Amino acid sequence: MNLASFADLAVRLVNSGVCDADADPLRSCEAFRAFVAERPFLAVPVTQHDLARLKLLRTDLAEVFATAAEDGGRTAADRLNALLTVHPVHPVLVQHDGEPWHVHLSDAGSMTDRYSAASVISMALLLSQLGVDRLGICAIASCDRVYIDGSSNKSRRYCAEHSPARGNVTSLRQQRQELAAGSGESVA
After folding, report:
1. Cβ of 21: how many Cβ atoms within 10 Å?
2. Dihedral sign for Cα atoms in the order 188, 163, 31, 121
3. Which pairing describes strands 102-105 and 135-137: parallel, antiparallel, or unpaired?
4. CA separation for the pair 33, 46 (Å, rounded)
């Protein structure tokens, strides 16, 4: 089971909620199918009911990220435990393409069942293996996107949409504007 790949499902779902309504992949079944097109195990029918349930999952996963740093992870872990109860994981052993036996998630269930199980179990396993401090929210004040820090030194502070250089430039511009506003000078 590729934890990083499945955890990316959680990150992408949460981050899809911070875009405008016209870009939200949960706005229609067609938009969601396009959103998960590169994931063959999610190539199953999707309904409006699935989209409504995925919106709830998106909110729940966003709360996991938001609470991750608040109390040393206790609340984030409690939320993930609750999600594991609501979205049970059904692993199966498989062998294909000349690979040795390995674990996959069961192909049974609805779109929501598959998406939820994959994203929740991977988040729980990553939290247990890497620690709660690897779950983050972008350091740019105007950005609510989340990320999982896979760096070797736990140094990531920005989502995929923002590079550290852009964050530094944004911060520098903001500092210049504040200084100029205080002195009445032009920011040029």
Report:
1. 7
2. negative
3. unpaired
4. 8
Q: What predicted TM-score, i.e. pTM, was given to this entire model? A: 0.80
DSSP assignment of 31-42, as one string?
HHHHHTTT-GGG
- Mean pLDDT in residue range 50-78: 93
What fold does the segment set 3-183 form as a domain?
Answer: Jann2411-like fold (1.10.3300)
Token match 């674990």: residue? 103
Q: How far apart are CA 68 and CA 96, in angstroms?
A: 37
Which has the minimum average pLDDT: 10-19, 56-65, 97-106, 162-171?
162-171
Length of the chain: 188
Give the DSSP H/E element, type plus range, for residue 145.
Answer: none
Please compute the mean of the pLDDT values over residues 168-180 and round it to a whole number: 54
In order of 19, 45, 71, the CA distances from 80 in angstroms are 24, 26, 14
pLDDT score, position 165: 46
Say what the pLDDT of residue 67 is. 94
Domain ranges of the chain: 3-183
- H/E element, 94: strand 91-94
3-state secondary structure of 150: coil
Interval 70-91 mean pLDDT: 91
